[in-house]
Amino acid sequence: MATKDSGADAFYLRYYIGHRGIFGHEFLEFEFRPDGKLRYANNSNYKNDTMIRKEAYVSPAVMAELRRIVTESEIMQEDDQQWPMPDRVGRQELEIVFNSEHISFTTSKIGSLAEITGTKDPDGLRTFYYLVQDLKCLVFSLIGLHFKIRPI
Amino acid sequence: STDRIASMADTRDIIRITEDTEDDFEQVVGGGGGDEGVRLVKESAKSRKGRGFESEQDRDDTMEFDAVGIDDGDTAGPQRSVEGWILFVRNLHEETTEDDLMDKFNEYGEVKSLHLNLNRRTGYIKGYALVEFEHYKEASTAQNKLNGADLNGQRMQVDWAFTRGPSGGGGGGRKSRRQRDTKPQQRSERSRSR
């Protein structure tokens, strides 16, 4: 049996967004694993692009910054119970293990901040919305520069 | 399994990131290595929250990921990127500009790329940056000299952005051998014990 980690320092983060558009099924997913491996996948049928799948090990410094971003967002204090359910139009998933807490949130696609105002938990959704933006920025920079591609 | 999640309706044709099939030698480094590490980390959590746990579905993934020089079993030394060497800079003052960084880093070589990302909510910078040099010497020297250096009243933290192999969560690990029923991945990713 493998040695079990104490769990106190363990960190894991995964984000997924997928939807049906006029170009068919499209999705984006990235995952930061506890050992620093970043996995990125983007499937778009726009112009018949094939799927992009990249992976790289990011340094402990990057993982530390990721933790800081998550901490600053206060996402771990939120709850998705009042958020719009994923629907046929689209789905988002955010899964994080941090400080011995494991969250796994699901919701529909959020097109813009304006959509959030009418919901039951606008503050929570706003937190989610901005965190996702920040995570995407980080991941696109990492993947884009490492592979010299435009990742989306 | 805790990492199976509900999917959209009619999504059988969507391929997702999920557990791949690794070969017999799985290295567990501080509980963080490979798919086993992910599973252990999820199980080690003391609390759970969210609708994502409510329904589960098998995620099937048989495709590989492209990588640059990756080595799942070996060192955590710096890894070169496709066109150069990338540094990761942290603890930047929120009003730091691209020019501020160029001034600092150009001293060690030509900066080929610079990403100074914004905080999407506040409009200030998020606090980190990525800086690319073409040559290892340039990046390495910049990292040495600028790590801890002052910029706008804050001490920059400068490190490599990418490593050749995994970094453990804490402490050493040990190799475990597991028999798999599924076929190993095509691309050989042999782990080595440390």
UniProtKB/TrEMBL annotation, chain A:
List this protein's GO terms for biological process.
mRNA transport; RNA splicing
Nucleus is among the record's keywords: yes
- First-listed, main subcellular location of the protein, grouped into a coarse class: nucleus
Source taxon at top rank: Eukaryota
Give the residue range of the signal peptide. Answer: none
Any one cellular-component term (Gene Ontology): catalytic step 2 spliceosome
Q: Where in the cell is it found?
A: Nucleus
Keyword annotations from UniProtKB, A to Z: mRNA transport, Nucleus, Transport
Q: Which InterPro entries match?
A: Mago_nashi, Mago_nashi_sf
Q: Which Pfam families match?
A: Mago_nashi
The entry's family comment says:
Belongs to the mago nashi family.
Q: What is this protein called?
A: Mago nashi protein
From TrEMBL, chain B:
* Gene3D superfamilies linked: 3.30.70.330
Q: Give the location in the cell.
A: Nucleus; Nucleus speckle; Cytoplasm
A GO MF label: mRNA binding
Q: Which GO terms describe its cellular component?
A: cytoplasm; nuclear speck
- Which Gene Ontology BP annotations are present? mRNA processing; mRNA transport; regulation of translation; RNA splicing
InterPro entries assigned: Nucleotide-bd_a/b_plait_sf, RBD_domain_sf, RNA-bd_8, RRM_dom, RRM_RBM8
Q: Where is the composition biased (Basic and acidic residues)?
A: 179-194
Coiled coil region boundaries: none
Pfam family, any one: RRM_1
Region entry Disordered, spans: 160-194
Q: Which residues form the RRM domain?
A: 85-163
Q: Which UniProt keywords apply?
A: Cytoplasm, mRNA processing, mRNA splicing, mRNA transport, Nucleus, RNA-binding, Translation regulation, Transport
| Role summary | Core component of the splicing-dependent multiprotein exon junction complex (EJC) deposited at splice junctions on mRNAs.
Summary of subunit composition and partner proteins: Heterodimer with MAGOH. Part of the mRNA splicing-dependent exon junction complex (EJC) complex; the core complex contains CASC3, EIF4A3, MAGOH and RBM8A.
Q: Which family does the similarity line name?
A: Belongs to the RBM8A family.
Q: What is the name listed in the Swiss-Prot or TrEMBL entry for this protein?
A: RNA-binding protein 8A
Q: Which organism is it from?
A: Macrostomum lignano
Classification of source organism:
Eukaryota, Metazoa, Spiralia, Lophotrochozoa, Platyhelminthes
